[in-house]
Amino acid sequence: MASRRFIAVAALAIGALLLAACAKKRHTVAVPAPPRAAAGEIVNGESGLASWYGHPYHGRPAADGEIYDMEQLTAAHRTLPFNTWVRVVNLTNSKTVDVRITDRGPFVENRIIDLSHAAAAAIDLVGPGVAPVRLDILSLPVTSQNWYAVQAGAFLDRDRAERFLASLERDFGPAHLVQRADSPTLWRVVVGRVPSEAAASALAARVRVHTGTAFVVRLDGPQQDPDAAAASR
Q1: Residue 44: what pLDDT?
Q2: Residue 4's Cα: distance from chain center in Å?
Q3: What is the span of the domain harbouring residue 179?
Q4: How far is CA 75 from CA 14, 83, 147, 170, in A?
Q5: Which residue from 57, 110, 158, 212 has the highest number of Cβ atoms inside 10 Å of its Cβ?
Q6: Is residue 197 within 8 Å of residue 158, measured between CB atoms?
Q7: In angstroms, rounded to a whole number, what is the distance separating the alpha carbons of residues 219 and 199?
Q8: 171-209 pLDDT, tens per residue?
Q9: Domain for residue 216, yes or no?
């Protein structure tokens, strides 16, 4: 009789442990590895972390020249063409929002998109600040030749930025400064000019060994001449 009671109690305990484990698994959100793009290919279904931005950028020009309004459904991405429409899926709650790419960023490790305040509010991202998302491309604009580069650093002091630029040019070839209109002004150091995101990723891997961090960025508008690169976030 005692042995039967012991077996019953043990079975209940094991069952409780299994239920607890399942409950924990249901609340865990895994961020899938982003798909890899072939040379010149736009990545659909990109996954990673999203953040949002508002002041002090509200009311200032975005990278595409438009005045940024944080209550419009827009976003910043490092490489997608301006006027690309993207559906952003919050992987923690399955909420979605459609945004238009008008700006460049975020230049933070592991983040793939920076949403406007309105877009972040639509998927409950304002409070947490950062969340795992998936990006599904809805439409792409007609673009001419794409050019990419690598952001290797950003400085408040222009002299420091220029010294850093000179050190990079010795190892990686032509580089230039991109002024980010801010308060105070930020000087971004950008290296290279290559025709595919894959080539830029290879360059970023080499630069990262030297600098510790490097981001692939799209060169927009008149910067077919690298010295005329447009200011971006």
Answers
A1: 84
A2: 59
A3: 147-228
A4: 48, 10, 20, 35
A5: 57
A6: no
A7: 14
A8: 888 899 988 766 678 888 999 999 888 999 999 999 999
A9: yes
Average pLDDT, the chain: 80
Distance between CA atoms of residues 50 and 120, nearest Å: 9
The type of residue at 221 is G
How many residues are listed for the chain in this entry? 233
Structurally, the chain folds into a number of domains equal to 3
Query: CA-to-CA distance for 32 and 91, rounded, in angstroms?
Result: 10
CATH number at residue 122: 2.40.40.10
Of 66, 149, 71, 153, the residue nearest 107 (C-alpha)? 153
Edge-to-edge order in the sheet of strand 175-180? 175-180, 186-194, 147-155, 215-219
Q: State residue 69's pLDDT score.
A: 96
CA dist list (Å): 54 to 1, 25, 88, 112: 69, 34, 18, 17
**In terms of DSSP bridges, do strands 96-103 and 74-76 run parallel, antiparallel, or are they unpaired?**
parallel
CATH code of the domain in which 218 resides: 3.30.70.1070
Q: Give per-residue pLDDT as tens, 43-92.
A: 689 999 999 999 989 998 898 889 999 999 999 999 999 999 999 999 99
Q: pLDDT tens-digit profile of 159-171?
A: 999 999 999 998 8
Element (H, E) at 110: none
Place of tokens 């950003």: 154
